[in-house]
């Protein structure tokens, strides 16, 4: 059980940020039995501290842990850690500043000293965090992306849908290639056929087909090899509520290119806890480059982005129960 594996019965202990003591033979260090989350707290204009959908992050953390043969962290413990951290460090946030948030990084790692290839019998759970601005600029400036055809992030049956440390290790070279090509991010395609769009390095991806009120909001279906983003889920709900038809479907890089060129796809954006909603303006795929729309943030992108930010900052009523208020 969780208690046997960690010895933790709560309440969480708060301490200063500093080095950890680990064994050189720690399982997590050698074999990557490590899962984590990334979520944010915001400070509203009236001073209220609000964490965005920590319950959804707690459940994804549990699913990630399950895939990595790690113990089930009860949701209430996850939330206790979030609450305790935000109640103390959240006070460093200025009220109502849309540019700043408190980024929270819960992590659980296999802390037993053992070089045998089996799941650890000891685990450490900790949560760190820091005040941060947006991942990209706070203005919705479009980014450029590079399609990775050489490397893949996740294979069928692998750990792609888990927020596991190893998924990111495999991505460093591809992300480096994106930067070398003058791009901000890598676009992952499926490992089997190397053509179905999955996600970006640390974000999910959306497309807008058509324009005006009849526009359709499209995102790759959850195939088991991409991360089910909490932001992705929130935006699907917000798009539906605004009357846009939404579609979770397979979309290939070739379709993306051709539909951008024919004007059928009018917008593309990335989304995630860190990136919030960030427009994609230019795509590089080998020797081919194409633009999305006129390379400026599109109206649907901006509308959904604002709807999400309004909820983060408590500017609109929280009809979904997504904000956890910390006192
Ligand atoms: N995909 C990957 C690979 C990610 O690391 C993230 C960030 N957690 C996302 C998508 C977006 O997920 P979320 O909206 O839950 O932050």
TrEMBL record:
Q: What is its EC number?
A: 2.6.1.42
MF term (GO), any = L-leucine-2-oxoglutarate transaminase activity
Catalytically driven reaction(s): L-valine + 2-oxoglutarate = 3-methyl-2-oxobutanoate + L-glutamate; L-leucine + 2-oxoglutarate = 4-methyl-2-oxopentanoate + L-glutamate; L-isoleucine + 2-oxoglutarate = (S)-3-methyl-2-oxopentanoate + L-glutamate
Task: Write the protein's name.
Answer: Branched-chain-amino-acid aminotransferase
CDD domains for the chain: BCAT_beta_family (cd01557)
Tell me the route in metabolism or biology where this protein functions: Amino-acid biosynthesis; L-isoleucine biosynthesis; L-isoleucine from 2-oxobutanoate: step 4/4; Amino-acid biosynthesis; L-leucine biosynthesis; L-leucine from 3-methyl-2-oxobutanoate: step 4/4; Amino-acid biosynthesis; L-valine biosynthesis; L-valine from pyruvate: step 4/4
Where in the sequence is N6-(pyridoxal phosphate)lysine found?
163
- Keyword annotations: Amino-acid biosynthesis, Aminotransferase, Branched-chain amino acid biosynthesis, Pyridoxal phosphate, Transferase
InterPro entries reported in the protein's UniProt record: Aminotrans_IV, Aminotrans_IV_CS, Aminotransferase-like, B_amino_transII, BCAT-like_C, BCAT-like_N, BCAT_family
- What PROSITE patterns is this protein classified in? AA_TRANSFER_CLASS_4
Q: Which GO terms describe its biological process?
A: isoleucine biosynthetic process; L-leucine biosynthetic process; L-valine biosynthetic process
| Entries under Gene3D superfamilies matching the protein | 3.30.470.10, D-amino Acid Aminotransferase, subunit A, domain 2 (3.20.10.10)
* Cofactor(s) needed for function: pyridoxal 5'-phosphate
Q: Does the keyword Amino-acid biosynthesis apply?
A: yes
SUPFAM superfamilies under this entry? Answer: D-aminoacid aminotransferase-like PLP-dependent enzymes
Family as reported in the entry's similarity comment: Belongs to the class-IV pyridoxal-phosphate-dependent aminotransferase family.
Which Pfam families does its entry note? Aminotran_4
């Amino acid at each position: 059980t969780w208690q046997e594996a960690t010895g933790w019965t709560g309440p969480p202990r708060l301490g200063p940020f500093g080095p950890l003591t680990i064994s050189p033979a720690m399982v997590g260090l050698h074999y990557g039995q490590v899962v984590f989350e990334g979520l944010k707290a915001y400070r509203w204009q009236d001073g209220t501290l609000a964490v965005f959908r920590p319950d959804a992050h707690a459940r994804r953390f549990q699913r990630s842990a399950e895939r990595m043969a790690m113990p089930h962290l009860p949701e209430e413990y996850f939330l206790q850690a979030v609450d305790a951290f935000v109640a103390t460090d959240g006070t460093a946030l200025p009220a109502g500043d849309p540019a700043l948030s408190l980024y929270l990084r819960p992590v659980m790692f296999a802390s037993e000293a053992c070089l045998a290839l089996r799941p650890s019998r000891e685990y450490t759970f900790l949560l760190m965090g820091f005040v941060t601005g947006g991942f990209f600029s706070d203005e919705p400036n479009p980014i450029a992306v590079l399609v990775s055809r050489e490397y893949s992030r996740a294979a069928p049956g692998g750990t792609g849908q888990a927020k596991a440390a190893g998924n990111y290790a495999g991505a460093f070279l591809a992300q480096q290639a994106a930067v070398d090509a003058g791009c901000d991010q890598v676009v992952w395609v499926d490992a089997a056929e190397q053509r179905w769009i999955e996600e970006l390095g640390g974000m999910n991806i959306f497309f807008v087909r058509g324009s005006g009120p009849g526009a359709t909001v499209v995102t790759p279906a959850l195939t088991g090899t991409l991360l089910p983003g909490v932001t992705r889920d929130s935006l699907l709900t917000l798009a539906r509520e605004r009357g846009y038809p939404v579609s979770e479907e397979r979309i290939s890089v070739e379709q993306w290119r051709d539909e951008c060129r024919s004007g059928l796809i009018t917008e593309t954006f990335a989304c995630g806890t860190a990136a919030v909603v960030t427009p994609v303006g230019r795509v590089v795929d080998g020797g081919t480059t194409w633009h999305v729309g006129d390379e400026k943030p599109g109206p649907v992108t901006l509308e959904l982005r604002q709807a999400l930010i309004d909820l983060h900052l408590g500017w609109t009523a929280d009809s979904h129960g997504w904000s956890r208020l910390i006192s």
